[in-house]
Amino acid sequence: MAAVTFCIVSAETERLDRFLADQLALSRTVAARIIADKRVTRDGRPLRASVQLERGAVVTVELPPEEPPPKSYAPAHRDLTFAYEDEHLAVLDKPAGLVVHPGPGHWDDTLVNVLVARGTGLAQGAAEGRPGIVHRLDRDTSGLLLIAKTDLAHRRLTRMIERREVERVYAALAWGHFANSPVDIEAPITRHPTDRKRMTVLAGGRHAVTHVRV
Description:
The protein has helices spanning about 15-25, 30-35, 110-120, 150-160, and strands at about 5, 15, 40, 45, 50-55, 60, 80-85, 90-95, 145-150, 185, 190, 200, 210. The chain is built from four helices and 13 strands. By secondary structure, it is α+β, with helices and mostly antiparallel strands. It folds into three domains: about 5-60, RNA-binding S4 domain (Structural Genomics Hypothetical 15.5 Kd Protein In mrcA-pckA Intergenic Region, Chain A), CATH 3.10.290.10; about 80-160, Pseudouridine synthase (2-Layer Sandwich), CATH 3.30.2350; about 170-214, no CATH class. The strands form five sheets. It has a four-stranded antiparallel sheet with strand order 1-6-3-4, with no helix packed on it.
């Protein structure tokens, strides 16, 4: 069984259940279940959900086995804005706070579930558990997202992205002084070793080039 250890560095205290849900991208319900199952410990002792974590605290989380993706998807209802749609694909404006596809902690409240409720046809040739998904945006990121309705559209859109024939532009708030603009950032990117919600620059990661203009 996989386990992950967190060392608290924030000066502000935070409830264990909230911290766990945030760091592992889980719903509060799933985080509470993990804590109730005594999978979260400090110095070998199980912790309660209401425990306030202070700077310097070290907690270990035993992650439950990953559940297999569902063979069907529960419908979820939410308003979506579409920039374009035809019988092959759709381009929608994903709102912040919405997870793109089902996964641990978010099996029935994702974009895929909303599209199922809407009756949108989704390509089945995508990765298991990600029908119609061509690329992703993080839960807290808003922006345009490509959705494939047919397997042919999914193959062609995926190939276009792989060949960098699709340009993706991100707008972000930056803090500090940038001496040069524009600037190209070339560094290997991979998932953060302890914070699954974040990506980080790390040797052995996937080659990435980001063009930044301030």
